[in-house]
Amino acid sequence: MHFSAPSQAQAARSFGVILEGTTDLRDRGISWSGGKSALQLDATLPITPDLAIDVKAATLHGSQRHGGSDFGLAISPNHQIYLSGWRLAYGVTGHVFIGEGGLNFVELDGSATRSIGPLQVAAGASFAPSQKAIGGSNLYLHADAVIGIPGSPFTIYGGAGHTLGSNDDTPRARRLRPDGDYTDWYVGAEHVSGPGAIGLRYSDTAIGVVPDPSEYLDKHTGAKLVGYARVFF
């Protein structure tokens, strides 16, 4: 699950917890909470300065995309190195959907991030080898940027991605690619004050008209303006 605004790169991983409420939990341009508001807890558990386990837990409100699951969990052991000013990170993410057997899946993740003054740019990929839970394989390529406005509490961010993969012609292939391969994009703005932040994010996709909702398929794949609030611990 990749739901938060990009964060500034850190020289070393440190313990942290973020609680976020959002009007719609969206990943790669499509809703994971059936278009409903949701809560997400995001925690970083450092093991060494460059090795950590990221854990995300989110309410899904009986998401049709995930077999009616009410609760999702993503566990991501990951390692980072630094090379010529770039932060290179790689790891694996296990997506677990509570109460819905057979829908869990695994992705391999990699990214490269660089900071240039107040600007941070990143590019990355997440690859899910062919699995029954997602009806084939899935590859997500993305590029992102975030900039803090000097002298202000505002951050502006945006990015785009492309999802592609194989399809075994089962309904589960619609989970991550409702209408086949597609492109998504987003822009957002965030205001940070003390231990909290509020923001707005607009996202859209190139997904065409989705057929009537059915197993693993819902209609929440198009343009959406989402509001959110975070508290940092």
Name its key features:
single chain, 233 residues, Porin, globular
Task: Characterise the protein shown here.
The strands form 2 sheets. The chain has a 12-stranded antiparallel beta barrel with strand order 1-4-5-6-7-8-9-10-11-12-13-14. A hairpin with a 4-residue loop joins β9 and β10. It is mainly β and 233 residues long. 0% of the residues lie in helices and 61% in strands. The protein has a single domain (16-232), classed as Beta Barrel (Porin), CATH 2.40.160. It is globular and about 50 Å long. The protein contains no helices and 14 strands. The protein starts with 15 loop residues before the first strand and ends with a strand.
Strand order of the largest sheet: 1-4-5-6-7-8-9-10-11-12-13-14
Largest sheet: 12 strands, antiparallel, barrel
Structural class: mainly beta
Radius of gyration: 17 Å
What is the H/E string?
A: EEEEEEEEEEEEEE
Q: What are the low-pLDDT stretches, counting only 5+ consecutive residues below 50? A: 6-11
- β-strand percent reads over 45%
Count of separate DSSP helical elements? 0
Overall form: globular
How many domains? 1
At the first level of CATH, the class is: Mainly Beta
> What is the assigned CATH homologous superfamily?
monomeric porin ompg
